[in-house]
Specification:
With 120 residues, the chain is mainly alpha-helical. 48% of the residues lie in helices and 0% in strands.
Length: 120
Amino acid sequence: MEMGAYIIEAAKNGHVKILQDWMSFYKTSINFQDEDGMTAVMWTCKNGHEKALELILSCDQKCDVEMRDNHGNTALLWAVKKNHIKCLQTVLAHGADPNVADAEQVKCCFFPGFRKACPY
């Protein structure tokens, strides 16, 4: 298994210490995508792992918050769809596009949690 897959597993499960160790020791791309096109940032937003998200976004590598999975979702769309407000605010603060739409043209602004949390 490629190291990027291990980082995704740690992010998916919110294992901050493991993520921290692996990200400092292995210089794999933080933008690695799994078989569904999901990145570590997308998994943290989908599962609401705020501390893991903050760690990934603070690393030395440039994390692309606009990458899309196989269904057109970005990290922001996952945070909105799962109503993880803190993750939503964090990825917005790191440059996520608030006007993004998924493959079915569902936009963030369609979700009540986004309207409450977003200043746009």
